[in-house]
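Checklist before submission:
- one chain only
- standard amino acids only
- sequence pasted in full

Submission:
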Amino acid sequence: MALDISFIKKIPKVLLHEHLDGGIRTKTIVEIAKKNKITLPSFDPTHLSKWFIDQSNQKDLYKCLDAFAVSCSVMQDQESISRIAFEFIEDMYLDGVIYAEARYCPFLHTNKGLSMDEVMSAVLAGLNQGKLQYNVDFGVLVCGIRNLGPEINFELTKLAHRYIDKGVVGYDFAGADLDFPLSDNIDTINYLNNHKIPFTVHTGEAAPCDYILEAINLGAARLSHCAKIFDQAKTTPSIIDQSLELIKQNNIHIEINISSNIATGVSDIKHHPFISLFNNGINVALNTDDRLMFGNTLSSEYGYVANLYNLSYSDIKQMNINAAKSAFANNKVKKNITSKIMEFIV
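Returned file contents:
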């Protein structure tokens, strides 16, 4: 029996993988751009939305990443950044999300003179305002980006450390994984591990499974994407077996981003590893990645997958419990959001 999208919206959900600069409302982009005289591909919100989706759905991760130059262009002053952060929480509330981790790279919002601390203050102000109004819990992940280089990523790590327990809950290694091995940032990784700051890694998005294994061995608490985890099945199956064993052994959570992966590289849903991972008891849950780029919501992701694979409400509930227990939030928040999911009455 198909699950209705209106029902899925009511289910308490947890979103662990969404980029703040990849989930802005196009109406907001247009309004900020007009106010600040910023050039856009289109000043019509509908046409601009189509531009972002078209740009990001070309089976080319780099073309999708290029679209962030446009979204980041309207996040260069504190007022705009706070507005976007507030609307992030509002959008979560409207989609039935009770806890969300917003990830972003503060360095990308310093082009007009803001310091990274000023960027962080603006983000936290907007998120806290949203939480106060909508009772949606949140955590912030500071994104290091592989191609920014080790020095900037290390500074971002120290920034994350300064704001731990003030809204920041962890760190994320983002960016194109294939061309920039994680080990290039060994000082950052050592700092994170030494200060017990949990981190997740974009891996297996464009790169094969040996990059996933590298992230696990370097201490990743969660893994983002893993869309290419089975790509070496014929050439080096031992790497896949070793990775899956470590993922199970350490209960490492995989942040699944199906719409994103199909848009940027995976040929079609039949070649996505989600259902194999889920059916084999791997700790997974669905995510949106970038709602602006892929035109999705967390409810639409669950609706698409549930109806495609005939998944039940219990399956959706289990994935959201997986996400709640794997969040980087403190134990009090995790217990609270897990209880809300468990206590939801169908």
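Reviewer check: Residues 243 and 249 are 10 Å apart (CA to CA).
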